[in-house]
């Protein structure tokens, strides 16, 4: 079934009540290109309150921006009221959103001509800016004067570069010059949006070309994760090194203020958290052998390579983590289950009932074995335990 079919119900319903409604944005662009369609967006002259009245299941997402999610067979469709965006004073969000009854005005506020095409339920297009020609010629060109459009909203520059990778398109000369001119405004874009765009960039087909654009327009100098890297290093980055850069930023910023807003995948979060935990432990002077025991080879290895890339911590800390990598190979046991003793034997030999003392004792034994002060045999361990008991009497 066509991805547009659910959204078609939305167009038909709105039209049956006398409203205009069109498919718009990335889905129309991708449809014209013959690419796989993801989310289908709808634009309409119906107001948000009306949209909510006309459909059974809706979710308010950004009603103040005119967007309501309509659920058709549990399939979410973003329906947005025609709008214009008035003045921008902070380079990222319009100061106020005003609704309009004109499709042309709605299309005019969109970023690139390829994204400013409306399509009706019979797949006929309304394309006042000749977006289909830009698509044919693989051009990333703004609706209106590029310099003004980037000055209004700096995020558009990141989107432009992301589209190079995602669609294998090229910046027009005007677009590229305007990016070069306005690129310092990227500082007004939130880290979360930057990461989102960069992730899409790295997932695209033409990552190399997009990275060259990051370098050629000097954009990388305004991206927090990349500003310390050289041009050559930027060309060598990949999605993984983006995450590495984030970890490095987090190391510098222990408040973790970035971490919460990045909305990374579970795996990425785990990767970052493990490295940060390891660093925290190293900072609080946990010995290398202990670090080696506590963390997997992967986590230690990743953290070491991160630190080699960005030696921003003090030498002794780095040494402790590097030593942990070596110690990992030499550990007498890899985890507690490899101890040649267990709770049952200890209770039996000491003639004591189970209780919190048992965990404390096992942790102590484990520590002695890891540190190489006690051999991992039942006989040695029991001797040591009895000896400890006598000393504590
Ligand atoms: P994707 O394939 O990643 O979904 P998209 O073009 O659909 O790409 P969305 O973020 O889903 O991107 O936005 C939907 C549409 O909203 C865009 O196609 C564009 O018309 C408009 N749009 C999005 N962001 C901006 C922006 N910063 N400035 C102007 N128009 C925008
Ligand atoms: Mg989209």
TrEMBL record:
Record-level Gene Ontology MF annotations: ATP binding; CCA tRNA nucleotidyltransferase activity; magnesium ion binding; tRNA binding
Example of a GO biological process term: tRNA 3'-terminal CCA addition
Keywords assigned: ATP-binding, Magnesium, Metal-binding, Nucleotide-binding, Nucleotidyltransferase, RNA repair, RNA-binding, Transferase, tRNA processing
Binding site for CTP: 26, 29, 110, 153, 156, 159, 162
Binding site residues for ATP: 26, 29, 110, 153, 156, 159, 162
InterPro entries named in the record: Bact_CCA-adding_enz_type3_sf (IPR050264), CCA-adding_enz_C (IPR032810), CCA-adding_enz_firmicutes (IPR023068), NT_sf (IPR043519), PolA_pol_head_dom (IPR002646), PolyA_RNA-bd (IPR032828)
Domain Poly A polymerase head: 21-140
Catalytic reaction annotation: a tRNA with a 3' CCA end + 2 CTP + ATP = a tRNA with a 3' CCACCA end + 3 diphosphate; a tRNA precursor + 2 CTP + ATP = a tRNA with a 3' CCA end + 3 diphosphate
Domain CCA-adding enzyme C-terminal: 262-385
Residues that, per the record, bind Mg(2+): 39, 41
tRNA nucleotidyltransferase/poly(A) polymerase RNA and SrmB- binding domain residues: 169-226
Cofactor list: Mg(2+)
Transmembrane segments: none
Pfam families per the UniProt record, alphabetical: PolyA_pol, PolyA_pol_RNAbd, tRNA_NucTran2_2
E.C. designation(s): 2.7.7.72
Family membership noted in the UniProt record: Belongs to the tRNA nucleotidyltransferase/poly(A) polymerase family. Bacterial CCA-adding enzyme type 3 subfamily.
Remaining remarks: A single active site specifically recognizes both ATP and CTP and is responsible for their addition.
Task performed by this protein: Catalyzes the addition and repair of the essential 3'-terminal CCA sequence in tRNAs without using a nucleic acid template. Adds these three nucleotides in the order of C, C, and A to the tRNA nucleotide-73, using CTP and ATP as substrates and producing inorganic pyrophosphate. tRNA 3'-terminal CCA addition is required both for tRNA processing and repair. Also involved in tRNA surveillance by mediating tandem CCA addition to generate a CCACCA at the 3' terminus of unstable tRNAs. While stable tRNAs receive only 3'-terminal CCA, unstable tRNAs are marked with CCACCA and rapidly degraded.
PANTHER family named in the record: CCA TRNA NUCLEOTIDYLTRANSFERASE 1, MITOCHONDRIAL (PTHR46173)
Subunit structure: Homodimer.
NCBIfam families: PRK13299.1
Protein name: CCA-adding enzyme
Gene (UniProt): cca
